[in-house]
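Blackboard transcription, Thursday session:
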Amino acid sequence: MPGTIQAAMKRGVTIKDIAKKLNMSVSTVSKALNNDVSISALTSERVKALAKQLNYIPNEAARHFKLAKSFTLGLIIPDILDQYYAVAANGVEETAEKNGYNVILTQSHEDEQKEDRIVDVMIRNRVDGVIVSITKNRTDMQPFEKLLSIGIPVVCIGREPKSGQFDYVSSNNHDGAVMATEFLIGKGHRRIAHLMGPAGMRTSQARFEGYKQALANHGIPFRNELTECVDLTRAGTFAAMQRLMRLPEPPTAIVTFKNYVTLDAIDYLKKYYPELVDKVQFTGFGNLPILHHLDHKPLASIEESSFEMGEEAARILFERIGEDGENTERVYRSSQLPCRLVVHDDGE
Amino acid sequence: MPGTIQAAMKRGVTIKDIAKKLNMSVSTVSKALNNDVSISALTSERVKALAKQLNYIPNEAARHFKLAKSFTLGLIIPDILDQYYAVAANGVEETAEKNGYNVILTQSHEDEQKEDRIVDVMIRNRVDGVIVSITKNRTDMQPFEKLLSIGIPVVCIGREPKSGQFDYVSSNNHDGAVMATEFLIGKGHRRIAHLMGPAGMRTSQARFEGYKQALANHGIPFRNELTECVDLTRAGTFAAMQRLMRLPEPPTAIVTFKNYVTLDAIDYLKKYYPELVDKVQFTGFGNLPILHHLDHKPLASIEESSFEMGEEAARILFERIGEDGENTERVYRSSQLPCRLVVHDDGE
DNA sequence: GTGAAAGCGCTAACAC
DNA sequence: GTGTTAGCGCTTTCAC
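(Written on the board underneath:)
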């Protein structure tokens, strides 16, 4: 029985119901609810009082449709189980919430096809902006260029965009690697190896540069055989460690690309060179809380500001959303957030 | 200049544009796009061809509004950084995606006020259903009852609802605790302690019951002083461990409520009873991947099927969404997913 | 097999 | 300070 009170209750109270009960027009009610200055205090109060009494809940779907704005941000990260991204997501969400926005959080699982589909869904749902940490093997930026072309701004985080048309927020990987390496140099090491990330990622390159820079700063010659690429799998790290430890002169310290690489490398030593596990010293990117519980851990970690990265990305995105899409002459920004060196005490 | 081709491009191609170009009505185009049987194959093809050519992207916001359905699920978990919930979220998302649904993932951070606000946002956004792991201290179910009252189904996961009106999916905590305890009994232990979770949580109670059940099964008397509640903080675990270890006869094995409690308990031993750290044996809930890297780890873990929990919750939710809201005589379901005992090998 | 038209709930000119 | 009205893009009856 459409039109009955029953149906209306089920459907939810609308602005029209309020208008009718108050003998006003819907526009007056709408304005009152939106604190329009042209509405008298009395009217405004009457409207709000009745709205509360009737348990009026605005239908955002209708607003979104009408305003052609979804008040929703799309966020694409490789994996929610990687705390680096989970924390960044928190930064995005907090900033979004402050701006009255929702976030649709999605994972690409490093699958480009999945990423393409996600972008499609976001377009269909008319998100107002997208923050993305692109899949590691992507070579083109096609779906993201599509977003820009239809007026949806995009901000990249963590992983550098493959073309220059995007805002980009990341850690200062170069300086972080310098800090990690210089810390080991300060501890007296001279044969310092580098377990470098995948060569295709700019992040790997930046950290590699920082590593070399630190060596140069201290007059230590760079040796090619002391840098090994890993593919971020346990097997890959084991293979790399094997090559390093079988050198005529193995390293006495190692700068690693990432948390999990460090842990796998230490496991490798535990298994094959147990006598060296307390000798070879590590520093590396990432500071997992779990490190506290480990007996064999890196000497120090490079803590990245991933929460702040998410915040900054969202801030930039909101600026872009606020901009008039007309002026095509934009300057794309690239911000590098500082890293922090955290020394792990051995006692407690 | 509204109405120009420029504006149209910016605005996006609509069903109307397609209709005009093809000299058809919008209803025909709509039906063709939605594979309505009443449309001829030829028409359907022409419409789809032009849609593709014009790069038509349906405006979901308009559909949602028209259909009074958002094709969106709300998910509320305490913390995304807790992998237990992150994995459950993945289960929800995968199932949602299969059904063409989006998920709005939110975190309560164990704050009831925040949770209230989240539910409000979800109502405003007209989500079609909600999956929630309620904050641990909540005593009422008020916001969730409100959801039900306006026809939005709710499924609880992991944490038991405080009233009987909700579907609920969780691990079989009782049987898991039995397994954990019997495993230690099988290793010859007789003085087995239990680091129990917060007394207010039904999960804690269920695990506690399982622990007692296992003891009873093997004719081991339950001793009150061997069970200590923890509040899930490191300090709380340390205090509980202190009481246990200062007993005239300290336990030789301990069943813990959760991963992090185990790790903190082991840390306590490392610090204050280093000679016992390899003697006192642990089993407990949760199987973090990071456990592999630890030197001192539990003998075995009770792995919960949290991914499956998310899947199952989403499945139930979709059933409810499909139901006609009319029949008030619902039977609310409570499913307990089995746990798995995982023994940690010492080698590799 | 196709078209005309109403309307979902809301906002924003514009008129008064 | 308030009301009238058009319309966002789409689906869906109901006619033909």
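Lecturer's comment: Residues 24-28, 31, 38-40, 43, 62, 65-68 of chain B lie near DNA strand C (CB under 10 Å from a C1').
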